[in-house]
Amino acid sequence: MSSIWEGLPSVERKPIFSLPYLVRTVISLPAQLVLLTEDGKIVLWRDGEVSALETEPELEPVLSVRLETPPVSADGSNEEDKEEKNEPEHKLICLVETGLVYRVSLSSLDLEEVEYPGDGLLNLVGNEKHEFFSDSSGHVWSKGSVPYSGLVHQTQLFEKVPFFSGKKLLQVEIGTDFSICIVKSDDSLLSPDIPDPDTSLSEPDGPSCPLGLSLNLSINTDYNRNITEPKNTETRRRLRSAVLTEVPILDNSSESNAINISQLTDSSFNSSESSIMHPLSENQVEDLGLPTRPGDVVLEEKSQSEPPSVRSSDIPSMKDFVILNEPFSKTLNFKTSIRRSTSSHGTGLERILSLQDQSLKDLSEKGVELRRSEVWVWGNGSRGQLGQGDMLSRPSPVVVPALSSHHILKVSAGSQHALALTASGTVFAWGSNNRGQSNPLDSLAVVLYPAKLQLPRSETVRDILAENNMSMLVCDSGNIYYTKPSSNSNARFHCIEFSSLNLPPDIRPYSLLTSDRYSVLNCKPMSKYTCKLIVREKVLLDQIESVSYALSTLCPGTPGSKNREDSIPFLDVQKSVDKAKHFLSYCVNRSQIHLSLYEFGSTGLYKYLDPWLECCREICWTVGNCVSADSLLLDSHQSQHQHIIVDILISKFGYNQKSIKGQCELEQLLVELHKLSENYIKVLMELHTKIEDGKELMKKIEGLMGLQQSLLKMRQEAEDTREFWKTSGAKLDELRISTRRLVLDNRTQPLLLSGVMSKHWLVLLTDVFVDVGYSVTVHPLSTVWLDTPPVTGSGNKFEIVLIMPEEIKTLVAFSAQSRAVWVKGFLQTIVGTVRNITGSSLPPVTRNVTYEFTRGEYKGAVYKGSMTQAKLHGKGSLRLPDGSCYCGEWSNGIQHGAGTLTLADGSIKEGTWRHGKLTGNGKLKLADGSLYEGSLVDGLPHGHGVRKEGKFMGRGASVYIGEWEKGLRHGYGVLDDIMVGEKYMGMWSGGYRTGKGCVVNSDGIYYEGNFLHNKLTGDGTMIFEDGAVYDGEFYGAGQFNGKGILTTSTDRFEGVFHGNYSDGMKFNGTVYKNQEPRTPMIGQNWDKLQINTVNSGKKWGSIFSKFEGLLGSENPWEQVAILVNQGKVKAREEGNCSIQDLDYLETIPDFGQTNKLNWSEYTEILNYLSRAGTCDFHPFCRIVQKLVQCFNMSYGGVRSHPTLLPHAKDELESISKRLYGSVRKLFPSLPSLDSHAWILDPTLEENEAMMITSNSLLFPLLLPSIYPTLFHLYIQREEKRDKEYWVRILRWNKHSDTALLTFLDVDISYWDLPADRRSRDELFLEAVDSLQQIKMKFTPKDKLEVILDMFKAITGQAGTGNHTWSMDSLLPVCMYVVVRARVLQLGAELAMLSDFIENYLFQGEKGIMFTTLQAAYVQILRENVFLN
Asked: CB-based contacts of 1190: which residues, under 8 Å, 6+ apart?
């Protein structure tokens, strides 16, 4: 409800009328009032009746309304003044939510759209001199005369004001001849340095003065550059609708108890001119951090020739004010004006307040953002209304520098003066002062700089209003102050007490609107006690801002500082005070909208009380640092600002002049920060008596009271420390740090050091324990563990044992009470030093520390990490003086667990340590770049491992994988010597080739035999690249040395051989001619291979033995579960593995454990093994990875040769069988290798049975990883035949289907051939596609399925009539499909499939189809007739 009064509200008079909602704008016309409500409706009052404004079509919700200003003619006169009309027609200019502007005639109620440039209007203000608005794109537009428009030239067309580019306009107000606004930088808007793409801003021809002084230059009044024509209505409507989604209009209609009262009446003023008053809309107010409206007020004049100093005697109290309980004297003269302020780009405050972060840092950062605003002014400055310290005009916007350090929430412009309201509830005024409107306590005619209006110390301002030559303030107490000379006294500042308004206790003034002789006093439900909380927040902010200002004046030269280190404590105080200032700014902004009794919990400081407690502790800790360091005495430079500190003590903290101590002013001021919350506690306690459930409130009070006690204790500790340093002497000067506090001193609390003859001075500080004897020994408390032995024996020694990494000290107290005091001191300081996050009063046994050793084997080493009872225990790093560093796990002072040792020469040892030695899986990287990965014992390779030496194709480059013993190659291994160009696969002993082995070199020569100390001994077999085979004595690749037999393609040589096979072979013996010359092939001589090589079953023994050792325990599944669980913990720490798979693998399965195996259990076993094979922590995955690595390194790489294929086949079969035997220990229901177990596969037709073998179970897991290596050997062996095959495939594919079928002797009468005889690739497409899939499969079973699908597609091909297939008719069709499928290396595919296909798969239909495909491949090779 709002009430409209004529004159001030008074008991003797009643309001003219009331409305059930809040009023946002009031326009006074001679015969009526126009009111804009908060919900965007326009209400008219005329002839004692209230009615809504009804237009045709209906007007959309209105954001702002003003009376249309008649245009100014060329001679400067008002055009309507020239028209002689008794009753001029009044028209309203209405800005609606869609961003459009309408002109509404109050007589005819006609609605006419007014075109404006820009996209979606947000602000619209103006008077007869200029008009001003902003749009949704961030542009600010203006037109009018200089210097009022903000442009440097006069124009009657809207132009963009370039100074606002990159700025967010928060509020704008205009006076008679000047304008004022609040802006904030916004990176999302156009940068001031970047011109708008639509228009380029051009300066007028010729120079212009930035101060607005006339340069006697003619300016073209027709200047119209930088003008943008209005966009079409629909486009602007859409743009404005989009903006409204970001700028919600707050609806206060639900506040049924809201009251709007008042009118200021001036009976002596009967102007026919209309007056308009627009307050801030609520959403705009929230963007500025305001509640909402103004009120009215009044104080006594105190003439002074100079601005008043801030002293207690100058601060007004209630007795200085004239209390008005009578109708307001009717001498007010309100001009025709506009009060309109809006936010241009969304409610910034709502966005900031909506964030949920509640840490002190986050809240302070939000406060910084809120305070990042400036007050800009421009226009005529003849009465100082621009606040620049002079009376010059400014045609362009300039900053008011005196307000830069303040958080300005609202500005208001009078005729020739201005007001600014800060977040702390203080008001600054400047400009014309002829009626006391800028400084009622000063008799000067003008106020050139913003000056603070002095109110009683308990008063804080909620809202302001500058109207004509009058200033009005609405206070949080409900009192209303206004300026106006009084006819019967010298008072120019007057007060309307809240009690005189006769309002209900919980209804208080909220905002004040005026227009001509009418006023509207908006009121809302407000709790007295909630308002008191808000007042205390503002007072706290005011005090903190004052201290911050005082500290800033003392910088950069800081008090009592001779160097940078001494100034750091003072700078820390300034930072903590600034943080508190920003935090309170956020809190005050938040509190403006929470006013009812039970909304006290939503006020800023109450809601964020924990960050406030943290803030207070930080301030008092930093102040204590300055006190303990005795660095608060002012030097000669700071003494010049002593009066500022004294004024703050008097005006803000209630000191009198006598209580201020000389030379201690700054310390007195900072010590007052310890008491900041005292008055806030009193208000909370008063509030506690008024609410029903006050448990939470009492907890807050108790927390604040506890804070006050801890702050007092903190202050006392700082003062005691200062006195200690004064008497400590020069010995402890190096320990004098501002953050250190004295805890105990054995000079005041006796304590002795046991085991020494002399008396030692023992001092306990907050972070170190100091032992002063002949020398000063400092023990960091972070590495001190405490023990209190029981009192035993007749001596009754009260001992305290200090356990440290390199020594143990025993202290002796004189009594149990004395020991308890020292023990308590040690415990508290150690807990504080190690930052115990558990909240325990006892220090943790295990701590993260940094310690430098001063003696022993680690002398000079620095340790960072975990310690337990003064021993290195847990994770940590130790850096030795020689540069070596160990980083990893420790146990009782030695390396134990996972860790990495980096030596000074750059070599690295990484892996698992046991009792100081590297044992288990690990890595060794030597200084020369060699790398070993594998099993280690006492830091040496032992077991299976891989060693890489040198760089690829560099000198000494080689790779060895195999067995090791005590750092030497021992057992089976494979050495790929890259530079020598040979690969050795065989036995080793003591680092030498010893035993059976084979070698293949880069010349394609393969040989095998027995080695001793790297030399071949006895007979052996050698196969050359051309297929020749030698059996006998030799000593290297191609080097004959004794008796032997050499078989070539044409001859057989038996005798004694010497020399080299490829160059100068010498032979003495018999030559036998072959009966039929033949081309020797490697495959024909494989029966001579593997005679002198290592049996595949004896290879990689250490890998299998380790896996067997794990499974050989009583319960192998428990061992598997333990390993997987350990990996699960590690995976959670690193986040690099599927926890779901680990949960599955950690569970011991119940399938596969019985003697009977069915298809369901078999698939479960397959699923388990496939998932285990992808989990790095499962032992099955580890053995599979190692075996795959061994296979690929043995048969792959640059030394891959087809003579190694028999070895590869046997090794793969051996791996499969041996691994199968290990898996059977986990799943006993799997059949043995010797048995032939069959299970029915329900997924196949007619329940076809499948035999369980090692290959069928493990090939799907092994082959995908080793397939490229294995298949490459087949490619090499079948290379010649596959080349011939491919040549024929390319040639035959050039012909049409008909020609190819005819050539292959296919009976085409059975097929539907295409009409075009030249077409290709149109027959048997499904069969061709099926055969091409053979390259995508790995296992023999899957490849057979592909072949079977191909033949099913062939036999299912639609033809004419029924066709009975025979091998003679199927083979040519199969050849056609092979030709069209164009499968690369088909010979290698068939050869590999033939070698690994199991016998049971080769039977039946699959075997027949496979044989047919082989026959087709062979027939293609043997075809002698060529298709031309």
From this structure: 961, 974, 1099, 1100, 1103
Distance, in Å, from the CA atom of 691 to the CA atom of 631, rounded to the nearest integer, reads: 47
CA distance 875 to 1227: 39
Q: State in Å, rounded, how far the first CA of the chain is from the last one.
A: 105
DSSP 3-65: EEEESS--SS---SEEESS-EEEEEEETTEEEEEETTS-EEEEETTEEEE---BSPPPPEEEE
What is the 3-state composition of the chain as percent helix, strand, coil, each rounded to the nearest 5?
A: 35, 25, 40
Q: What is the distance between the alpha carbons of residues 63 and 555, in angstroms, rounded to a whole number?
A: 47
Nearest Cα residue to 401 out of 387, 419, 414: 387
| C-beta separation of 414 from 431 below 8 A | yes
Distances (CA, A) of 508 to 1, 6, 257, 493, 1412: 12, 19, 11, 21, 103
Q: Omega of the bond prior to 843 within 30 degrees of 0, cis?
A: no
Helix (H) or strand (E) segment spanning residue 1169: helix 1159-1172
CA atoms within 13 A on the CB side of 126: 28
Our separate counts of H helices and E strands in the chain read: 29, 60
Q: Where are the beta strands (DSSP E) in 212-268?
A: 259-261
Q: What one-character-per-residue DSSP string does 1394-1421 give?
A: HHH--HHHHSHHHHHHHHHHHHHHHHHH
Residue 379 near residue 393 (C-beta atoms within 8 A): yes
Sequence-separated contacts (24+) of 761-764 with Cβ below 8 Å: 762/811, 763/732, 764/822, 764/825, 764/826, 764/829
Q: Using CA atoms, how far apart are residues 718 and 741, in angstroms rounded to an integer?
A: 7
Question: Do 609 and 680 touch, CB atoms closer than 8 A?
Answer: no
Residues 6 or more apart whose Cβ sits within 8 Å of residue 427: 419, 420, 421, 452, 453, 455, 461, 464, 473
pLDDT in tens, 457-486: 889 999 999 988 889 999 988 888 988 876
User: So what's the pLDDT on residue 1428?
Assistant: 58
Q: Residue 611: is the preceding peptide bond cis (ω within 30°)?
A: no
> Can you tell me the distance from the alpha carbon of 983 to that of 962, in angstroms, rounded to the nearest whole number?
13
Q: What is the pTM for the complete model shown?
A: 0.67
Q: What is the DSSP letter of 91?
A: E
The gap from C-alpha 921 to its chain's centroid, in whole angstroms, comes to 37
Helices marked H in 69-206: 79-82
Type of residue found at 696 = E
Name 898's Cβ contacts closer than 8 Å, sequence gap at least 6: 888, 889, 911, 912, 913
Is 1265 or 1112 the better-scoring residue by pLDDT?
1265
Q: Please choose, from the candidates 929, 1013, 1207, the residue with its C-alpha nearest in 3D space to the C-alpha of residue 1092.
A: 1207
Tell me the C-alpha distance between 1348 and 1327, whole Å: 10
**In the block, which residue shows the tokens 């690595």?**
1189
The CA-atom distances, in angstroms, between 1203 and each of 1029, 1085, 1087 are 12, 10, 11
Phi-psi region of 939 (alpha: psi -120 to 50; beta: other; left: phi over 0): left
* Cα 584 from Cα 383, distance rounded (Å): 35
Note whether 1082 and 1063 are within 8 A (CB): no
User: Which residue do the tokens 């499968």 mark?
Assistant: 1383
Structure tokens at 290: 């305001």
* CB-based contacts of 903, cutoff 8 Å, min separation 6: 884, 909, 927
229-278 pLDDT tens trace: 344 444 444 433 333 333 333 333 333 333 333 333 333 333 333 333 44
Binned at pLDDT 50, 70 and 90, residue 888 comes out as: very high
Residue 320 CB neighbour total at 10 angstroms: 16
The answer to whether the CB of 799 falls within 8 A of the CB of 792 is no
